[in-house]
C-alpha cells in the first residue's frame, strides 16, 4: 500500500506549505518543527495499522479497560535530514526503539553519483515492525539500500513502513518495485519532476541544509 496523506485535506498540507515556502523555510527551527509535526501525523496514521492487546488501567476512581500496542516498533532514520521526522514519530511512539543509518551521495560529476551507505546502529529487527524514515524520497535508492543494510545486519522485520515527507514520482516507482511484500509506503506529497542532479521539483530544496546548515 502507498498512502499519500495530502490526497485528503488535513493539517499535513499546512505544514508542507511552510516547508516549501522560500521565505518561511529560512527559519531553521520552524523548518525542523514542521518536519517533526508531519512525523507526528504520519505516526498517528501508522498507529492505526499496528496490533493491539487489551489492558486494564487503574484510575483514582476505578478500573478502565483499554488497549496498548502489542509490540513496540523500531523507528529508523537516514541521517541527517531524517532526524526531525524521526523525532516527530517518537513523540507518538514514545516507547519505541531507535535506529540510525548513515547514507550520502558520492558525486563523481555534477550529474553522476552513487549512494553510499556506510554505518547503521540498530536493535534486533527479527519479527518486529520497522518504520524507516527519510525526509525526501528522490531516486529511492537511499531508502532501499538502507533497508537492505538493516535486514542484512539486524534481521528480517515482520512489517515495514517506509516514510517520507516529499517524494518524486520516479522514486515512488523505484521503492514500490524494490520494497518487500510486507511493506507500506507513507508520503506527505508526490512531485512529478526531478532534475538531472536528482533534486525533486518543485520539492523544497536540500532538506538537510535547511535543517542544519550547508555542508562543507
Please give a structural write-up.
The chain is of the alpha/beta class and 216 residues long. It has one domain: Rossmann fold, CATH 3.40.50. Helix content is 32%, strand content 35%. Strands 1, 4, 5, 6, 7, 8, 9 and 10 form an 8-stranded mixed beta sheet that branches. A two-stranded antiparallel ribbon has the order 2-3. Strand 9, helix 5 and strand 10 form a beta-alpha-beta unit. The longest helix is centred in the N-terminal third of the chain and has 20 residues.
What count of domains describes the coordinates? Answer: 1
The rounded Rg comes to 18 Å
Counted beta strands: 12
| CATH architecture level-2 label | 3-Layer(aba) Sandwich
How many individual helices?
6
First CA to last CA: what distance?
A: 38 Å
* CATH domain topology: Rossmann fold
Largest sheet: 8 strands, mixed
Overall CATH class: Alpha Beta
Order of helices and strands: EHHEEEHEEEEHEHEEEH
Q: In percent terms, what proportion of residues is strand?
A: 25-35%
- The helicity comes to 25-40%
State mean pLDDT (0 to 100 scale).
93
Low-confidence stretches: none
What labels would you give this structure?
8-stranded mixed β-sheet, 12 strands, alpha/beta, 35% strand, two-stranded antiparallel ribbon, 216 residues, Rossmann fold
Task: State the gist of this model.
With 216 residues, the chain is of the alpha/beta class. Helix content is 32%, strand content 35%.
Layout of secondary structure:
Blueprint: E1 2-4, H1 11-20, H2 28-47, E2 52-59, E3 62-69, E4 74-79, H3 83-92, E5 97-107, E6 113-121, E7 129-133, E8 136-137, H4 141-154, E9 159-168, H5 169-178, E10 183-191, E11 193-194, E12 200-201, H6 207-212
Parallel strand pairs: 1-10, 4-5, 4-7, 7-9, 8-9, 9-10
Antiparallel strand pairs: 2-3, 5-6, 11-12
Amino acid at each position: 500500500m502507498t498512502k499519500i496523506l495530502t490526497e485528503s485535506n488535513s493539517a499535513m498540507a499546512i505544514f508542507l506549505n511552510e516547508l516549501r515556502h522560500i521565505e518561511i523555510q529560512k527559519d531553521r527551527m520552524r523548518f525542523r518543527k514542521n518536519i517533526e509535526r508531519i512525523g507526528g501525523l504520519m505516526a498517528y496514521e501508522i498507529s492505526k495499522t499496528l496490533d493491539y492487546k487489551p489492558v486494564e488501567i487503574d484510575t483514582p476512581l476505578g478500573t478502565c479497560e483499554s488497549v496498548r500496542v502489542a509490540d513496540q516498533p523500531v523507528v529508523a532514520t537516514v541521517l541527517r535530514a531524517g532526524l526531525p521526522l524521526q523525532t516527530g514519530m517518537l513523540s507518538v511512539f514514545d516507547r519505541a526503539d531507535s535506529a540510525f543509518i548513515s547514507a550520502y551521495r558520492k558525486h563523481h560529476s555534477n550529474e553522476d553519483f552513487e549512494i553510499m551507505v556506510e554505518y547503521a546502529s540498530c536493535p534486533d529487527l527479527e519479527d518486529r515492525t520497522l518504520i524507516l524514515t527519510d525526509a525526501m524520497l528522490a531516486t529511492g535508492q537511499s531508502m532501499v539500500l538502507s533497508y537492505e543494510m538493516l535486514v542484512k545486519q539486524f534481521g528480517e522485520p515482520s512489517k515495514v513502513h517506509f516514510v517520507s515527507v516529499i517524494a518524486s514520482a520516479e522514486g515512488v516507482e523505484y521503492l514500490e518495485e524494490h520494497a518487500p511484500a510486507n511493506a507500506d509506503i507513507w508520503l506527505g506529497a508526490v512531485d512529478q519532476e526531478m532534475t538531472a542532479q536528482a533534486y525533486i521539483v518543485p520539492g523544497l530544496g536540500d532538506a538537510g541544509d535547511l535543517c542544519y546548515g550547508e555542508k562543507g
